[in-house]
Each structure stands twice: as structure tokens, then as C-alpha cells.
Amino acid sequence: MIDPSRTALVLSGGGARAAYQVGVLKTLAALRREAVGEADNRVNPFGIIVGTSAGAINSAALACHADDFNDAVARITEVWSNFRAEDVYRADMLGVARNGAQWLTMLSIGWALARWRRFRPRSLLDNSPLIGLLQRVVPMERLPAMLARRHVHALAVTASSYSTGEHVTFYNSSQAIEPWVRSQRLAVPTALSHEHLLASAAIPFVFPAQRLFSEGRSAWYGDGTMRQTAPLSPAIHLGAQRMLVIGAGRMHEPAAQRLPDRRYPSLAQIAGHAMSSIFLDAMAVDIERLARINRTLSLLPAQALENTPLRPVECLVIAPSQRLDDIAARHLDALPGPVRTLLHGAGVSKAGPQAQGSALASYLLFEAPYTHALMALGEADTLARREEVARFFGWPQRRLAQPIV
Predict the structure, then answer these.
(1) Residue 402 main-chain phi, psi, to 5 deg
(2) How far is residue 368's CA from residue 355's CA, in Å, rounded to a whole number?
(3) Which of 84, 145, 344, 345 has its Cα between 20 and 30 A from that of 49?
């Protein structure tokens, strides 16, 4: 019998790319409904939920509605299906000019003017609208009750401290769990809040850092994917024996088409490359590391296995089968005009197959045409692996005659 309290959901970061996660979750709920019926479909199958960046927001939304998993998935699906950039950041001309235009201007003329603080923008974009969205969508006041009633056993979100250089996992749990300390990363039990979500989702340079108070001290935090050398570690420390990891790119994507390009890379291309390294590479490396450890443990005799604290952890990974950068390139025109102008100044070219800098745009495209495309991909990728999904959760395996809608 599979123990949901030891089953973890790990949601990675990636800004607007996190729409893919919602497509996967929507299809998981539908597959479970088909396999076990409506009666059991409200029960949360993930006792441990861990998220980073935009994945932290999705994770918190699920945890705060853990008494009805089906309803929780429906709620976040509704949000991502109707997304507009202005729900997340100021996309009007004035808002973009106040932050983005000044930021790019400072890059071009240097920081000589920085002594005049009023000319020192904190980020490329102003994400103040995200605060209102979190208040509507993620009722953090429900989390203590969800934990007390054991609808969820632990929620963890990660952030990176600009003040100390440490990668910090903040977590709430239904019972006391000893915090852990590793090289340049540590865990802090705390009452999670919207501020922790804002910190975890503060994409470097793009969104402003968030000040958090912890253990009597304050520090400035940014996106939790930065310096995240072991993304799977929090789930394991919180007791996971099995985990579903939903990625946001790279792991199952086809290789990029290599075309000769004599042009010097634009700021957008360099920024997109850096973001992909931050958001995507560490997860892929950690999954490979876990697979190697599992293989090594499988070779140990039973007595030797009893003498090691290591235990195999079953891991199912669902990640995009298509390049999200290419999908973003087809939807650049969906961005509000001022944002398109700003990104064009950074080197993002017009929509189409030859678009440049679409990797950067893929993190900022909080627009329904793009999020719909990513959700549809998540649905298709999950349906393609329905038998693996059923085995992972221990559901009766049934071949469905019709696609799930």
C-alpha cells in the first residue's frame, strides 16, 4: 500500500514556464478520477509538497487547499488559463518606463548616477500586482489547519539569500522535523507567508528582492533556484520515500537546432542562457545523482543496506517533450506592447521561428495563449506516460479508449 504521507511533489521554478506543471497536475487528477472514482479523488496524494520560484506558488496553492486536491487543481488551472502579464507585473507604459527603461538606461550609461537613489531601479519589472494575485489565490491562513488535520504533512519553499549567500529552505510541517544544515544551504522551520513566496519567485534582475525576517534577523532574498545545488534534498529531508518531479524544461526536450550565427549575442540571449542555467540545470543534475545512488543501493546486500542511512527513493519525472523556448517564440506577440518594446531593446526579436532571445521571454510570458500551449503540452506528456503514472501511484491500470478532457 502506497503511503501518501511519504509521497512528495517537487515543482521546479521557471516563471511563466510553470504553466506546464498545471497541465500535468490537471491530467493527474483526471487519470486518478478515471482509475479510482470520484469518491477518493478529493484526497491529497502528496503528503510532502516542495516548490521553488513559480513552483513555490503552485505548491502553496495546492497545500492551502489540500483538503480537496481535485478542487485545488481546478483553482490553479483557472488562474493559469486566464493569465495576463499585468496579473504578475506592471505591463503598462508608465510601469515599464519606471523600472525597465531606467534599468536598461543605467546599463548603457553606467552606474555613475547611482548616488542619486531616486534613479536606482531595483529590478527590470515591478511585480507589485503579484501581491494581490497571491492574496486571492493562495490563502496562507488555511495552511495551519491543513497541517493540523493531516491533509498535508509538510510544505517547503526555497529562497536564496543575497545577504548571506546561503540557499534557504523554509518549511511548515505537521510534526517537528529537525532542520538540516549543509554546505551553503540550510533549512528553517517557520510560519510560511506570502512574503516567502514573493522571495522564492523573485527572478534575479527581473523582479525585486524580498526582505524576510528569520530567527531574529532580516535578510534580502531572491529566487530560490539560485545556488540550488540539490533541488530534491528538501523533500528527502522532510521524509519522502517517493517523489513526483515536474520539471520546466531541458530534461526531456529535444536538442536545440544548431545554426551558424555570426552575430554577437544580445543581452536577451545572454540573459536567457543564464536563466536556463539557473532554473533548469541543477534539477537535471540532481535527478541523475539520485538515479546513481539508487543504482548503487540496489547492488548492496541486505545487511550492508541496513548499516547505511541511505535509502532508495523512487522518482518519477515528467518534463516537457518540446522546447519551451520555441513555443515562447511563437507567442511573443501576446505580450503587452510596452513589454515587447522593453524586451526588443534587450534583443528579443519579433515572433516566429527565427526569433532571438525567446528563452528570456519564456519566463515572462504570463499570457493565456502561451500558458494554454504549455498546459496542453503538460497534459499530452502525462497522458503519454499514463501507465507509469498509474504504477507510481498504485492505481488500477486501465487503457482508456478516449482521450481525457
Answers:
(1) -120, 150
(2) 20
(3) 84
Q: Which amino acid is present at 326?
A: D
- Decide: 138 and 66 in contact? Cβ < 8 Å: no
Nearest to 378 by CA among 11, 2, 69, 5: 11
> For the packed helices 386-393 and 368-383, what is the interaxial angle rounded to 10 degrees?
70
**Burial of 349 from C-beta contacts in 10 A (0-12 / 13-18 / 19+):** middle
pTM of the model: 0.89
Please report, as a single letter, which amino acid is at residue 63.
A
State the cell numbers at 288: 541523475
Alpha carbon distances (Å) from 163 to 144, 170, 215, 358: 29, 16, 14, 31
- Chain mean position to CA 38: 28
Q: In one letter, which amino acid is 284?
A: A
Task: Return the exposure string of 221-254: e unless at least 16 CB atoms fall within 10 Å of the residue's CB, then b.
Answer: bbbbbbbbebbbbbbbbbbbbbbbbbbbbbbebe
- CA angle in degrees (0–180, nearest 5) for 281-184-284: 15
Taking alpha carbons only, the member of 204, 165, 172 closest to residue 186 is 165
pLDDT in tens, the chain (405 residues): 578 889 999 998 889 999 999 999 999 999 998 888 766 678 899 999 999 999 999 999 999 999 999 999 999 999 999 999 999 998 887 777 666 555 555 544 454 445 545 556 677 888 999 999 999 999 999 999 999 999 999 999 999 999 988 899 999 999 999 999 988 889 999 999 999 999 999 988 889 999 998 777 889 999 988 877 788 999 999 999 999 999 855 555 666 555 556 677 777 777 777 777 766 677 888 888 888 988 888 888 887 877 888 888 999 999 999 999 899 999 999 999 988 888 887 778 765 555 677 888 899 999 999 999 999 999 999 999 999 999 999 988 665 444 555
